[in-house]
Design a protein that fits this description.
The protein has 180 residues and is of the alpha+beta class. 32% of the residues lie in helices and 36% in strands. Helix 1 crosses helix 3. It is globular, with a radius of gyration of 15 Å.
Length: 180
């Protein structure tokens, strides 16, 4: 991914590059047991949040993906974007998280629409995948509302502090996204 980091704007959000100024918000999100219970990691310490911010910011510069900060009314409320990009097969993996206090309002669904457009139209993906914990019903519902298809369970797929856990694989094909 070369060139300046792309900013996406909607009526509700600014999807923008993460900065060092986002550390407090990232720490709050990734440090929340409510949020990380649905991810394959436990709550992150402040130091681990510093590392996470570095990893998310470095995706673009290292041609490994792109992670936007989701800004609503001047406040960072989450992140979303792509990682594990495979240019040879034209696919990428979708990742996202949202601060717990913003759950249940349809915000991530609205934020992901321009991100999916970017993936299919700019990054030229033919397939976008998402891997979620099998008990993450909210995320499963969100992805299905966006047109993702459940492809099944990957047993002992994701490492966690407590051992390997099963994850569900969902995918969205470009032709299906265009038909919506």
């Amino acid at each position: 991914m070369s060139g300046p980091f792309p900013t996406l704007k909607t009526d509700d959000f600014i999807l923008r590059e993460l900065t060092d100024d986002d550390l407090e918000a990232i720490s709050s999100i990734w440090g929340s047991p409510d949020v990380t219970a649905k991810l394959s990691s436990g709550p992150l310490s402040h130091e681990e949040s510093v590392q996470m911010l570095y990893v998310l910011r470095s995706l673009w510069d290292n041609d490994a993906g792109i992670r936007w900060g989701v800004e609503l009314d001047g406040q960072l409320i989450g992140t979303c974007g792509f990682h594990n990009i495979k240019t040879s097969t034209r696919r990428g993996e979708l990742g996202y998280e949202l601060g717990y206090e913003f759950w249940g309002r349809g915000l991530m669904r609205r934020a992901l629409c321009p991100v999916l457009d970017y993936g299919f139209n700019i990054l030229r993906f033919e397939r976008i995948e998402a891997f979620i914990n099998v008990d993450n019903d909210r995320s499963s519902g969100l992805l299905k509302k966006l047109g993702f298809v459940d492809e099944g369970i990957l047993r002992d797929y994701a490492p966690t502090p407590k051992g390997l856990i099963d994850q569900r694989c969902l995918s969205l094909l470009k032709r299906d996204w265009q038909a919506l």
